[in-house]
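Field log, afternoon session.

UNIT: design team B
ACTIVITY: writing a sequence onto a fixed backbone
BACKBONE:
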């Protein structure tokens, strides 16, 4: 089966719009983050080698490497979201005719729900990193493409908030409340200040246009 990342945009959107449960919002969250990271890489690539930006060459090279690593990570999360959701649906489809089957089914569902919480939480973490890196691109990047640094941070922030929704929905079904509360606390820490930071970078970019 062809991975989502290898499909055309049109086919991905068609599948997204269909009745099929996957791909869904989790994959879109990862894709938005990956697009943000790709835009940061673009800003770096169009800044590097320009004589007037020679003094920031090392910083932009470092940013490029980090952005490409995040792009790879977030791209992989598009499939990871599909995989964990498919596993969750398979768990819900397990037989439940006897008390023993019900117990096994419930245990399977709860185990996968923990993974289904960790996947979007990791996505949120990666999107937050893209947001943080966007500040460097906005401050030091080539002015001819500085608006793309702004689009990058907006994409990453959307990815972060979207991933958060998937953490919320999965933790709400977890019986292990200690696990759920720990993950929610981690999410809140990731999100703390993200909105203000994103808006600040957006305004920084706008001031340069």
């Amino acid at each position: 089966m062809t991975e989502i990342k290898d499909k055309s945009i049109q086919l991905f959107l068609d599948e997204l719009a269909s009745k099929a449960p996957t791909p869904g919002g989790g994959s879109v969250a990862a894709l938005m983050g990956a697009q943000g990271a790709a835009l940061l890489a673009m800003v770096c690539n169009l800044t590097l080698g320009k004589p007037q930006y020679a003094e920031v060459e090392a910083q932009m090279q470092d940013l490029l490497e980090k952005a490409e690593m995040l792009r790879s990570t977030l791209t992989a999360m598009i499939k990871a979201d599909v995989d964990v959701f498919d596993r969750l649906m398979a768990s819900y489809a397990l037989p439940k005719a006897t008390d023993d089957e019900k117990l096994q089914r419930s245990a399977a569902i709860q185990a996968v729900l923990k993974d289904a919480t960790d996947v979007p939480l990791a996505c949120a973490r990666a999107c937050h990193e893209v947001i943080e890196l966007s500040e460097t691109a906005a401050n030091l990047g080539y002015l001819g493409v500085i608006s793309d640094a702004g689009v990058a941070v907006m994409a990453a922030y959307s990815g972060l908030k979207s991933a958060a929704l998937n953490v919320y929905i999965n933790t709400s079904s977890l019986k292990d409340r200690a696990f759920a509360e720990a993950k929610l606390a981690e999410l809140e820490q990731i999100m703390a200040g993200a909105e203000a930071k994103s808006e600040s970078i957006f305004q920084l970019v706008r001031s340069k246009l």
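LOG NOTE: Helices lie at 9-17, 25-47, 57-92, 99-140, 146-171, 177-191, 194-207.
NEXT ACTIVITY: expression trials, pending approval
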